[in-house]
Amino acid sequence: MCAQLSSRAHLLPESPFRQLLPYAEAAKKKGVDVIHLNIGQPDIPAPATALEAIHEAYFDKLPYSHALGIESLREGFAGYYSQTSPEVKPADVVITNGSSEGLYFVLFSLLEPKDEVLVFEPYYANYSGFAIMADVTLKAVSLHVENNFDLPDNDTIEKSITPRTRAILFTNPCNPTGRVYSYQELKRLGELAIKYDLLFIVDEVYRVFSFAKPCPSILDIPELRDRAIVIDSISKRYSACGARVGTIVCCNPQLLTGIDRLCKLRLSAPFVGQLFAQAALDDSTDYMEKVKKAYQRRRDLVYDRLRHIPGVETYLPEGAFYGFVKLPVENAFHFCQWLLESFSHHGQTVMMAHGAAFYLTPGMGRNEVRLAYVASEERLQQAMDCIEVALQHYPHSTLVKELVHNTNQ
Amino acid sequence: MCAQLSSRAHLLPESPFRQLLPYAEAAKKKGVDVIHLNIGQPDIPAPATALEAIHEAYFDKLPYSHALGIESLREGFAGYYSQTSPEVKPADVVITNGSSEGLYFVLFSLLEPKDEVLVFEPYYANYSGFAIMADVTLKAVSLHVENNFDLPDNDTIEKSITPRTRAILFTNPCNPTGRVYSYQELKRLGELAIKYDLLFIVDEVYRVFSFAKPCPSILDIPELRDRAIVIDSISKRYSACGARVGTIVCCNPQLLTGIDRLCKLRLSAPFVGQLFAQAALDDSTDYMEKVKKAYQRRRDLVYDRLRHIPGVETYLPEGAFYGFVKLPVENAFHFCQWLLESFSHHGQTVMMAHGAAFYLTPGMGRNEVRLAYVASEERLQQAMDCIEVALQHYPHSTLVKELVHNTNQ
């Protein structure tokens, strides 16, 4: 019989967001209430006007849209970007099946096989899989919680640029760290992109969730407009992960040639999701402001709880809805599994994503986790209770060992 | 500046279904009524119960579904296949973003780069693009309208099988020809699949549209169950091309390992499309029977008109909703463009897909077109009027040349 898994499919990593789901399901069967902080799926209701648009729109079939997206939706996204950036035209906007498809299309259509893409680790774990699909190689520059995930100096970054490097892939605000990078920091990276003639691809799906100050778009920087490619999505900001509506925004029409062909090949993005997206973009209520404040309150709650747990090292995220946290454990993957398999506190436990999956460098992130604060404040308090108590009982806690060690001395 | 189009994106063919759209749009701007027979987008309303399911379902966000699809929808598809095949289980069903994603996932996860896939030409033109995305090579066995697109004998087929061949990719009913292949014919191909240890991938998106007798599924053949992979979609049968809901059905769980990882990577198929699909599969009205009859009447109309047009060579399609037709022209692409650019009859013209795009062998299909009968009988009559009159006026008609030649003798 033929091979059951091609060598390239074999390289695809297990999803850190879903890998432990069987354990979560088993826990639920035992009656444990699992608080899901493992995946960035918002729990906050979507904008009412956009939900109404689905329920009230008249259509007697679900047709293909234009391969590049419904024209009025492309106008909507162009308008959204033009609010902060120099003019973006509808022709600069391509609607994709979520940002997943968008990133894959960009990598496939603009890079040659084995070309290198510079990322900053920890990065969104699924980038590894899209790189394998597009047969390109990620090279990572490491960032560290100890210095708030600051970008290193140019010399350090340039050490990871080789003659095969063709693009920088950046996320702002960052998933998984929640760090927001400034206009000046983007500009500094942009100068490297110009110096080495690299594409500058920025995943901006969390851009509206920047708490202290607005998060700049890469499109704001005029000198980068010919090489800047934005990957965006409505999934997070409108609680619509299942709409499967993302976008590629690029003001250099030459760079969209191959993406145009890929879009025609897969025919269409989802019709109803696009109707929803258009209504959401047109929404004139203060929905977005309210949602941002809700995430900010949760961010504060989670940060405040975590920094008081002994042995936990954390950082105040400036945006997105994630915390990336160092735990007093040797193997966070094992700890996450143990939480589901062997632990409960008042009938509850927590599911998180283990940190190593967000790094390219072997060994990094082993004692880290990402948690998504996509649950109510009440449930987040309960989740923090669970983590706090679990770390006191986890048999492989390095903190317990330290305590034991200290006691034995 | 970086390359604007990777070498692989450069290989992606222009879409024969959309390539001439700018000409169609220009014709419309001149006031011409363009009858679109170029793309397989049904004009018949979707099942009312499924549309109601969208309008009436309660949801306050659009969530990710399970990466492999909503469980009850997988059950629905399993039930649909189990009606005619030995039992298909929900675990054998994976929900995809249309059949496009399904086919790409199968090729990527089960074949190595440069592996060969056997197809029968004319084949669905977009297979060429998916093969390029998955870096596999198509090899074509030619079929001919003159003998009703019959499969050739085994010796002829085996000449196209090489040591790199890993799969047969088949469509039944065939897009673009409308030919329906019998259980015995599938079985004969299946014996070759067993002999050469090939996967047998069958695109069955038109299976419900088989007019004279039911079209068998590849899953019906017990001895092929371990290597059979069905690609399916709700797009055509429920007039829901924009739902972006397709499926991969495979009863060999080993073959789904890589597909599972790809699904998790891209997170989810569209949520509302899946709600629609489930309601459509549950629909207990005689919707499907009525739709099939409507297509059959159109098939009869189009065939009857075409076979009376001088110089046109055609064949009575047994299924799907396409006609694949030889025209008395030297270059069907040019004729299709001319129809949009330079022709109208009573203020109308026709858009079709040119035949060469459905072949791998250079030079084949140059005088052929595919037309999709996705318009009312009234408009199909008008479309046939247009084609008939156009062929009398087209300056490069080979028929005109023959007539002139005969008159000059």
Overview in brief:
The structure is a homodimer of 409-residue chains. With 409 residues, the first copy, chain A, is an alpha/beta fold.
Structural features, described:
2 copies of one chain form a homodimer. Chain A has 409 residues and is an alpha/beta fold. Chain A folds into 2 domains: 7-45 and 287-408, Aspartate Aminotransferase, domain 1; 48-282, 3-Layer(aba) Sandwich (Aspartate Aminotransferase, domain 2). Chain A is 37% helix and 14% strand. Chain A contains 14 helices and 12 strands. Chain A has a 7-stranded mixed beta sheet with strand order 2-8-7-6-5-3-4, sandwiched between helices. In chain A, strands 9-12-11 form a 3-stranded antiparallel beta sheet. In chain A, strands 1-10 form a two-stranded parallel ribbon. In chain A, helix 3 crosses helix 10 (271-282), helix 5 (98-110) packs across helix 6 (127-133) and helix 11 runs parallel beside helix 13. The relative contact order of chain A is 0.17. The model of chain A has no long low-confidence stretch (mean pLDDT 94).
Mean pLDDT of chain A: 94
Structural class of chain A: alpha/beta
Task: Count structural domains of chain A.
Answer: 2
Content of β-strand of chain A: 5-15%
Reported by name, the CATH topology of the largest domain in chain A is Aspartate Aminotransferase, domain 2
- Low-confidence parts of chain A lasting 5 or more residues at pLDDT below 50? none
CATH domain class name of the largest domain in chain A: Alpha Beta
Instruction: Quickly count the helices of chain A.
Output: 14
The best one-word shape of chain A is globular
Range of helix content of chain A? 25-40%
Largest sheet of chain A: 7 strands, mixed
Radius of gyration computed on alpha carbons of chain A: 22 Å
CATH architecture of the largest domain in chain A: 3-Layer(aba) Sandwich
Kindly report the name of the CATH homologous superfamily of the largest domain in chain A: Type I PLP-dependent aspartate aminotransferase-like (Major domain)
